[in-house]
Structures are given as C-alpha cells and as structure tokens.
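Milestone M4 deliverable, item 7.
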Amino acid sequence: MGVLIIALGILSIKKPTWGWHINEGWKVKGESEPSDAYIDSMKFSGTITVFVGSFFIIGGILSLL
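Output delivered:
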C-alpha cells in the first residue's frame, strides 16, 4: 500500500498535469492548460503523498517487530 501511495506521489511531482484534462480540462471550452497555481498545488500534494506513503511503509515495518 505504501509503495503505491509513494508511486502516485512521485507521479504528481514529476508530471503534475497528468490528470488535469480528466479532472478539470473538460470544464473549459477550447484549448486550455492548467494554471501555475494548479501545477504548484499538485507538486505540493505529491510531496505530502510521498511522506504519507513513507509513514505507511515505516509503520508496516515497525508492526512486524
């Protein structure tokens, strides 16, 4: 579970626009790109997601001890 969460977080950091057309792009008429604020917020949430995934992995390892 932790590895999947980390992978999604890394995807959000590396390619912050990967889900924009599915989530928000259909609401805009014509050609449009995500704003800088959207890209920054996706990178920030990706960073938080990586930390959460790390806590899942660390918690899983500690529960085995």
